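[09:14] KT: can someone run the structure on this one? pasting the chain below
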Amino acid sequence: MTLCYNGGEKGYPITYTIIHTIHLYAAFIYGGFLFTDNLFMSKMGKSLSPEEAQKARQAIMKHVRKVVPPALIVTVLTGIYMFSQVFGEIPPEGMTRFQILLSIKAFLGLWLGIRGFNQVYLGIDPWVFKSHKFPFLLVIIIIALSQFMHL
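[09:31] RB: done, structure tokens below
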């Protein structure tokens, strides 16, 4: 018997709900860092000297590197699991709007995950975009897609 979140009737297994919750927390950590970096940390040079700003950023990033990359990996892995559970079969007339938007969201998430893994764990420079502005934009797009795909 599979426990379901809605009292045992038709619905997602509790495993999915737990994985989804982990996914959301990990995504909040990753997206929250990008939000903070792009909107606040990047502005430190305006109120601090270049040397002070660099020193402050290095002090913060020392702690960020322990938490944010693993959060990104957890987000991608839990996202792959959830994708496998909700994508469904492609109807004869082609993918549904939900499947199309979920596929775009999954592609962008995988791109972020591969880019981040290569940069942090393999020491490979990020492809094309070296700042956090493009990943931040992708996170915003992913969040929007996750809302629109359920309409």
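[09:33] KT: thanks! The chain has one domain: 14-148.
[09:34] RB: yep, looked fine to me
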